[in-house]
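Before going further, learn to read the protein records used in this course. The integers have meaning only within a learned vocabulary of local backbone shapes. The record below shows the convention in full.
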Amino acid sequence: MKKSLIILIISAFVWSCDNSVGQQRSFGEKFDPKGAMSMGDMLKQMQGKESMPAIVEGKVSSVCQAKGCWMKLETGNGETIRVSFKDYGFFVPKDLAGSTVIMRGTASINVTSVEELRHFAEDAKKSKEEIEKITEPKRELVFEADGVIIK
């Protein structure tokens, strides 16, 4: 009886261990990440376009700390691109900063309103003073992802 209990406990422990070590985690729609372009390549291909579909790989600089409903990726030129998730259909972990992701979706030029910019600043836990300094809408490149893979 004692042996059976020990075997049962060990089995439960092994079964509960995280088997995802070294594996990729995905959110949203599943997709094949082969052929993903760098952020720099995407920026080059976007020149002169208002939008384009793409599979892109990049490094996460920050994530919405309220619930993981957006993230920013480094572009390689000292700036970031804000990534939202299609139809608010999924969120990503809030601790992704510094991680590399591959995402599929649509890059587009967008005019973000002052109200939205302030909302994003609040989500990012910016100070009240920083939020109040936002007084103009911003024309920017954004990305709407329908799927994200964390490497």
About this structure: The chain has one domain: 23-150. Residues 31 and 147 are 7 Å apart (CA to CA). Strands lie at 25-28, 37-38, 51-63, 70-74, 80-85, 100-112, 138-150. The domain at 23-150 is CATH 2.40.50 (OB fold (Dihydrolipoamide Acetyltransferase, E2P)).
